[in-house]
Amino acid sequence: MAEIINLKQVRKARERAAKEAQAVENRVVFGRPKAAKTREEARKTLEATRHEGHRLKTPDSEA
């Protein structure tokens, strides 16, 4: 005979798991200190500037 399950408990457990997964994702995105965020932003800006600096022609001069 099959095991009897309570559908309400299964639904609530599934919702709890989804909320926990969202919480883990939010901790990664929003759980960094301000210094780490600014350092990352500065690094991205520097990388973009260096990447654009290696262009042979600027986008304005191509027109």
From TrEMBL:
Q: Which domain of life is it from?
A: Bacteria
Region annotation (Disordered) maps to 35-63
User: Which residue stretches does the UniProt record annotate as biased composition, category Basic and acidic residues?
Assistant: 37-63
What InterPro entries does the record point to? DUF4169
Pfam families for this protein: DUF4169
Its recorded name reads Uncharacterized protein
The organism named in the record is Methylobacterium aquaticum
